[in-house]
Amino acid sequence: MMLLVPLCLNSLVLISLLQETTPTNFDDLGKLLLGGVAAAIVFAVGFTLVRFRLRDKKPQRSSFISISSDKD
To answer: Can you tell me the distance from the alpha carbon of 56 to that of 37, in angstroms, rounded to the nearest whole number?
Structure first.
């Protein structure tokens, strides 16, 4: 959760910088769309990798308690 706030802040800053650029015509919109999709994919892959690494470092404890005996 602590990592999510800086990532959202960075994305908001990036969006605001992109909005402040000079207006584009319709020819450049395809390039902007492709760049946005590529940036979203890179962000999603990076976020997933970070999440998996944090999950591996701190395994979750099971809250399940068995009441049956394992004796054979």
So the answer is: 29
> Do residues 50 and 3 lie in contact, with contact meaning Cβ atoms separated by under 8 Å?
yes
pLDDT for the residue 45 = 92
Give the predicted TM-score (pTM) of the model.
Answer: 0.46
**Residue 24: partners with Cβ closer than 8 Å, 6 or more residues away:** 32
Give 14-21 contacts, CB < 8 A, sequence gap 24+.
14/39
Looking at residue 58, what DSSP letter applies? S
Tokens matching residue 32: 């902007």
Give CA–CA dist 12/26, Å, rounded: 24
Q: How far apart are CA 58 and CA 43, in angstroms?
A: 23
